[in-house]
Design brief:
The chain is of the alpha/beta class. It has a single domain, classed as Vaccinia Virus protein VP39 (Rossmann fold), CATH 3.40.50. The chain has 9 helices and 9 strands. Bound molecules: S-adenosylmethionine (SAM). Keywords: Methyltransferase, Transferase.
Length: 289
């Protein structure tokens, strides 16, 4: 039961090729893309930018970036698992994938915790959504992301935050979502409280023009947020029950609420924080790690 500690995101806890996982990623994008795009837009992302999308998942933001930076810019989309994005590009008939340096989008299988910096860097923009909270070495990864910025480049980090759950008045929903949070922490080391420390981790790394905002979607009315959490709960169900974090009765009740068009509550928030690298840096290609 406790022997699963030390698993990683792609070790069967989350991720993988299942249709349900692809639907989960798409629902996540439906909920969160408008806020992400608004923030990137406000930060001035535009033609000619060289951008790195870390943990791109289904690739909705990578594709938006590719459209925004245009032919004079470039986007590198990385993930441990690039199949979802490759399938999407294939479905669109896009032949530019896997052609580094040619066309606006390069898709790269890359572990952000350990692989060498993408050779297309340094970048004007580095963006990571719902990645660092799932990585126990998130502080070291943040160091890496900052080091991959060009002088004056912009970092944007988005992370889930559990605080809305703490005031939830619906016992089954709260217990199920608490169980989801606990099982992710106990298996892959997810930290849904880290985002509450923002923007300190960015300031501590010398970034300036630091800002942050919070997106708190309503989960209910059988909307995309409800679908995303229902699929996550279903994916984690066996692990939750095995660990006695919640019983089948509680999980069934929560799933029924998530499917109920009349239900509405708040699950997790998303905290978005950003900042700019110093205009002058001693960072040199080859010394970046
Ligand atoms: C919750 S999904 C978020 C996907 C996408 N960023 C989004 O917000 O729609 C997390 C993504 O991070 C990727 N990931 C997890 N660990 C990673 C690592 N060490 N290096 C690169 N990507 C990783 C997963 O494969 C998955 O696609």
């Amino acid at each position: 039961m406790g022997s699963t500690r030390g698993l990683r995101y792609g070790d069967g806890v989350l991720g993988g090729p299942q249709d349900a996982e692809q639907t989960r990623l798409a629902a996540m994008a439906d909920v969160c893309d408008p806020t992400t795009i608004r923030v990137l837009d406000d930060l001035g992302v535009g033609p000619g930018w060289h951008a790195l999308e870390v943990g791109a998942g289904g690739g909705s933001i990578a594709l938006w970036l590719a459209g925004r930076v245009g032919a004079t810019g470039h986007v590198v989309a990385t993930d441990l698992d690039i199949d979802p994005l490759q399938r999407r590009l294939h479905a669109q008939g896009d032949r530019r994938r896997h052609t580094p340096g040619r066309g606006p989008l390069t898709v790269l299988r890359h572990d952000v915790t350990s692989d060498p910096p993408p050779e297309q860097g340094p970048f004007d923009l580095v963006h990571a959504r719902f990645v660092l909270e799932h990585l126990p070495e998130r502080e070291r990864v943040l160091d890496r992301l900052v080091s991959w910025l060009r002088p004056g480049g912009t970092l944007v980090v988005e992370s889930i935050a559990r605080f809305p759950l703490d005031s939830c008045a619906r016992p089954a929903f709260r217990r199920a979502m608490d169980a989801l949070d606990t099982v992710l922490a106990a298996t892959i080391g997810t930290d849904s409280t880290w985002a509450r420390t923002f923007p300190t981790p960015l300031r501590a790394r010398g970034l300036s023009e630091v800002g942050m905002t919070v997106h708190l979607p309503v989960t209910g009315g059988a909307n995309a947020s409800a679908l995303c959490w229902a699929l996550t709960l279903t994916r984690l169900r066996t692990r939750i029950v095995e660990r006695r974090l919640a019983g089948d009765d509680v999980l069934d009740a929560a799933l029924a609420q998530l499917a109920d068009p009349d239900f509405a509550d708040l699950a997790f928030a998303t905290v978005l924080a950003w900042g700019r690298a110093p205009a002058h840096t001693t960072d040199a290609p080859g010394s970046r790690g």
